[in-house]
Amino acid sequence: MRSIQNKCRETDIQMDAETVVRTYSNMVYRVAMRYVGNATDADDVYSEVFLRYFKKERNFESEEHRKAWLIKVTMNCSKDLFADRHPYEDITEMQIEQEDNGPASEEIIDLRNAIKQLKPEYREAITMYYIEGLSVREISELLDRPENTVKSHLKRGRESLKAALEAADKAV
Amino acid sequence: MERERIAELLSLALNEPKPPERLVERTCWKARAAEERFRAAAPKKPITTQKSPDIQKGLPGR
């Protein structure tokens, strides 16, 4: 993360602040919910993240850099709020209750339970990689873990989810 | 299985919430205010009288 930031002092890509809010609202809120586990605290984290963004120098060299910065700040704000709790612990159930897009199939519920069973570090890597679309290198920088560790977490996470994913793939 | 397909299934399974609309709108309002402050604080470019490329090259004007 630091290496990217240092590299990016010279240039920035332009996007007005409101467009940034509209583009990254869902992502920031999703990541906050994964760490804090309830809507009230996620609201606070969300507001704080964008407040910090508004105060920040505009020096992003790419959209990936801006996105990574927003995720990092969301993680930090969430951790500040819950300094004594490991991220991703005991929060999946709360997330699931937040939004209801209609009845889920049995296979999707099985997949949901399989995700819940993952070790927190596997779940963190899996959600960053698949849902937020980050690369292994970006995850490694964000989570301050070696790339090989991230790859290993992704591999083990995928292996644990394999059966549930295949069943859901056939059903949906 | 492709990355996009796994992402789709995981999103479906997690069914993660979106921020409340009022929170997004309030933040957008703050964003517009911050944008105005940012523009006001930005150094203004001095007005310069630049000659057209033709004049610079010594060519007759159009």
Quickly list its features.
heterodimer; A: 172 residues; mainly alpha; 9 helices; B: 62 residues; 60% helix; elongated
Our Rg estimate of chain A from Cα atoms comes to: 17 Å
Low-confidence stretches of chain B: none
Write down the overall geometry of chain B: elongated
- Average pLDDT score of chain B: 82
Distance between the termini of chain A: 37 Å
Give the helix proportion of chain B (percent range).
Answer: 55-70%
Average pLDDT across residues of chain A? 83
The sequence of SSEs of chain B as H and E is HHH
Largest sheet of chain A: none
How would you characterize this protein structure?
- The complex is a heterodimer of chains A (172) and B (62).
- With 172 residues, chain A is an all-alpha fold.
- Chain A is 73% helix and 0% strand.
- In chain A, helix 6 packs antiparallel against helix 9 and helix 8 packs across helix 9.
- Chain B is mainly α and 62 residues long.
- The longest helix of chain B has 21 residues.
- The mean pLDDT of chain B is 82.
- At the A-B interface, helix 2, helix 3, helix 5, helix 6 and helix 7 of A face helix 1 and helix 2 of B.
In short:
Chain A is mostly helical and 172 residues long. Chain A has helices spanning 2-7, 17-36, 39-55, 63-81, 92-98, 106-117, 120-131, 136-143, 147-171. Chain B is elongated and about 70 Å long.
Q: What's the structural blueprint in terms of helices and strands?
A:
The complex is a heterodimer of chains A (172) and B (62).
Chain A: H1 2-7, H2 17-36, H3 39-55, H4 63-81, H5 92-98, H6 106-117, H7 120-131, H8 136-143, H9 147-171
Helix pairs in contact in A: 2-3, 2-4, 3-4, 6-9, 7-9, 8-9
Chain B: H1 3-14, H2 21-41, H3 53-56
